Predict the structure.
Amino acid sequence: MRSCTLFIAVLTLLAFGAIADAFAQEPIVRLRLDTINVRAGAEQALLPVYIENYDDPIIHSELWYRLSRPDLCSLRTEIETAGTRLDGWTGLQLIYSIADDGTDVRLYLGDPINPIGILFHPGTWPQPAFYLEFDAYELPDTTLVDSLRLELIDSSPSFFKLIGLGGEYLGTYVDTVPDTSYWRCVQYIDDVCVDWERVSIPPYDSIEIVQSEVLRIDTTQLKVYDGLIRVHDVTCGDFNGDDNVDLSDVIGLVGYLFLGGPEPVFLPMMNVDGSPGGEVDLPDVIHLVSALFMGGASPDCPE
């Protein structure tokens, strides 16, 4: 009897698991910004924007990006498309700033009314959809590294649209909400109101509540990941941030990697062998020693 009860319990758990999997919803589109490192004072730096639409083609997109720290960087009203998913695109492309002060950029890509083709074909794509362009400001003398976030405003379809081949808004749903109106009588004839005006504050004579349909973003279908820009003024190989690359930096790196010593002032600038994965490890120690004392290649950190 006990084994039968256990068997039924296991079946019940499996059934609940299957139901949970059925209700678990994979996103139809992911929009992702990278984390990048950029030298202070860099002009026309590039930040990759990835759009991963797995099933639905996209013929039009409206995207609005905004900086969290306008004192560190300024967005340009330009994008770079060479080597991206938009390479060779000749359709409608409007790029402008709402604030007009470098803190934001609005992109209007593809014509939803008269599309000339598909903007983003479905599938998995390793290359970015496009690059945002920005300038990095100089850092104060007392600061070696600072960072800011770049966010996609995704709170409403008024700011964030992805339109599919059939004209449908991807990743949205219709919500029904009460819409309250307040009315004040402005003309009476024999105690009967014959003319009304809509008001937003008291006094008012009547209230009208109707159900309105509102288009909303479905965050289970559209996943958005903000980006991080790290602005630095650190020389490649400079472990301690003293603006020199010498034996003290080799000692610091060895201590950090193998002896539990303190971290470098900016770890990415210790990837001196330029490994694409960004790892800082023994080959970086060897590369730095070779560069300093054996006439080897100079430190080459990826920006």
Remarks:
- The longest helix spans residues 2-23.
- The chain has three domains: 29-168+219-230, 172-216, 237-293.
